[in-house]
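As described in the Methods, two query proteins were run sequentially through the folding procedure within a single session, without resetting any intermediate state between them. The first query and its resulting structure tokens are shown here.
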Amino acid sequence: MALPQSFNDLIEVANASNLYRKLIIQLNKDLLFANVDLQLDLETLPTSLKLVLQDTVHHLIQHKFSDYLNLLYQVDVSELKIRALHTEDITKLSEEVTFLILQREWQKVWYKNKL
């Protein structure tokens, strides 16, 4: 499986596979397990999904760093990928981390669907 390399690619593949709703379900499950106060509606549009998740990640980085780390652990985002992000801009960092979270969630959904 080749991972999508952009948010738009990820959404396009998820929609084409009819797995977008499952992506939101998986994300909601991991957010709940990580004790992050965010539950997305299953009808959430992709642009809203990105913005809300990015805003949440930004807030966690700035105000609840241990919760941010817990979320990364729960989602199982690669530590190497996080360390490879080289930016001082928190907004840019939150955007990149949001994509890594969605990319990892997509992997989980895709694998479960293929089993």
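Immediately afterward, the second query was submitted; its sequence and tokens are:
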Amino acid sequence: MTPTSRTPLRTPALTLAAAAAAVVVLAGCVPNNPTTDSESGGSGGSAAAALTVTSTDDACEVSAAEAASGTLTFDVANEGTKVTEFYLMAADGLRIVGEVENIAPGASRTLTVTAQPGDYQTVCKPGMIGAGVGRADFSVSGERVEITGEDAELKQEAITLYAAFVKDQVAQLLPETEDFVALYVDGDDEAARAEFPLVRASYERIEPVAEALGDLDPRIDYREVDAVAEGLDWTGFHRIEKDLWEPAPGALNSDGETDAFQDWAPSTPEERAEFGRLLVEDVTELYDFVHSDELTSFLSDQGVDWISNGAIGLLDEVATGKITGEEDWWSGTDLYDFAANVEGSKMAFSLVSDLAERTGAEGETLVTEIDGGYSALEEELAKHGSLSDGFVSYSELTDADKKQLSDLINALAEPLSQLTTTVLA
């Protein structure tokens, strides 16, 4: 039975939300209006001309393989037949520097990032599963982009506050995961089912951090269909979910097509112990990272645009998985993940909204529009429950309910997609 009600969470969901609201000036940005080397004769940032990306079902063509350091804009056009994604990866091909998701066939979207000198990779992912296509080397030359004066202080304040938010969420995630795993391993499935959507909330709020750490997010949170498509061992929350909500005969797998019982058997006690151990081990790895100096260094290196892109990315998570009911395929607890993604997205937005407003009337209008979009989406979501009191099963939503939520997501996504460009203006 899907959890529909529960006493409030043990720890307030967003303990830093009030602190974020109280900070008037939060974040900084790279130097405004950077020029290319050819324009300046130096090594300033590159923003004079956007790089174009053409994504098809079997190719990912980028208009250039190199650029000058600074603000880079990738205009991604999907000329294929599948919804696609575009990634700028670190040289190791694992860490995500920037991404834009949910690009429908015939549509275009823009990725804006601050790129420091170094080697990177570009790749597209048609169908949004698998290893991607057209992976290619991409280099950034010039001098490191340094922030000086007031912007440096604002940027550092935003990074400090976001890092504290992430640490707080993962500090909740680890002990709650340990408790959840203990219930699962002991065979107390009813209690474990009640905990499943709640323990995941902290993770869903800060998922972009885990996604940036190579294969950590796949180990913790991949759906079965994603793991199979990429040839990975399927572990993590969703592997445990399938044990807790064992599919009925004739049920479809999480790809919506394959028989769920194909090559499937409930885990033995020994297998449960191993799946539980791996999940705790992977969440501990995330905890160790965010509670080390590496997190602040990572955020400092990526720049404040990584935070604004995180707000966009979390809403994309809702649009590509939660709104379709594909994320929590076995449990039907998608609305819990939906709400947590929206909370994490709104938190990230709050850290850079002041910077957007500082750009002038257009920035102020954009922030107002985004604020209104979040409010409308939250109001509609509240009709179906809350994280503290529980949500209805996703199966209880009507087609009209799903369309209304989808329309509100799309309405918010449009102005939110302009956030990073505005912040870096």
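Residues 1-48 have pLDDT under 50 and may be disordered. We note this only descriptively and draw no conclusion about the first query from it.
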